[in-house]
Structures are given as structure tokens and as C-alpha cells.
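agent> Task received from the user: take the single chain below, predict its 3D structure, and emit C-alpha cells. No templates, no multimer pairing.
agent> Plan: (1) validate residues, (2) run structure prediction, (3) serialize to C-alpha cells, (4) report one or two observations.
agent> Step 1 OK, no nonstandard residues flagged.
tool_call: predict_structure(input=
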Amino acid sequence: MKVTHTYQKYNPKAAYGIIASDFTKVSYVSNKSCKSGELCLCGAGESAIIWKPRTSEKIHTFTRDTGCHPISCLKASDISSLDPRVAIGYSDGLVNIFNMNTGDIEAHFRAGRSRVTSMDLKNDLLVCAAVTSAFLSYF
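)
tool_result: status=success, residues=139
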């Protein structure tokens, strides 16, 4: 008789609340303890969440201090940088930059009066655009 392997059945835990909203794209990020592509960053209403999709585990939540406007755009920096960051643009034109490891807000500014449409975050340079204006920021 051949030896067969038995595998444990995977039963995910229940997840409640907003998991992701359809307004923003889901992007895969990585940190030093996980392989590339094991974590995903998605907008969920007024906050951004880093999930581990394989285990349905919420790793980190980034929330805004004031106001409750939905996220319109988000971008994560490369993990190769010393301090990985997450830039989050909101529908009212505000942009918050969070430290991915600690969850603290490092910078915030208003990119325009209407929603942030696109962003790019490389090393210490953030380029973002709102519907009516373009803004370039170094931090």
C-alpha cells in the first residue's frame, strides 16, 4: 500500500465589517516578516487596511484623525526603503502619509479641493494629483 499524505482542512475565521471598497484598487505589499505578495492594502470606507488574505487576518488599520470622507486613492512605498510608508488620498483632497510599521501619521496636506485621483510614492518623493490641480511634495 502506498503512503498518502493527509492535509488539514483550512477553515477561515469569520470576517465582519468592511473588508474592501470598490472605489480604490487593492495593492499587494510586503513587510520584513512576510514574503512579497502575502499582504494586501485596500481602502475600506474611511480607513485603509492591510490584510493577510490567506488567513483572513487584519494586520494593520490606518484611520484618519478628523472627518469621515472615503478613500479615493492609496499607494504604498517599496519595502526596500528604510521606513516603508502608505500614502492615502481622500475624496475631499486631503492626503495622509502613514508609517507602515508604526501606523503613525508622518505628514498630511491638502492636494486640492476635490478628490485625489492618482499618487506615486518612491523613496522620499510623493507625487499626487487631484481633479482640479496637481501637487508635488518632498518629505
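agent> Step 4: summary for the user.
Residues 37-138 form a domain with the Lipocalin fold (CATH 2.40.128.630).
agent> Done.
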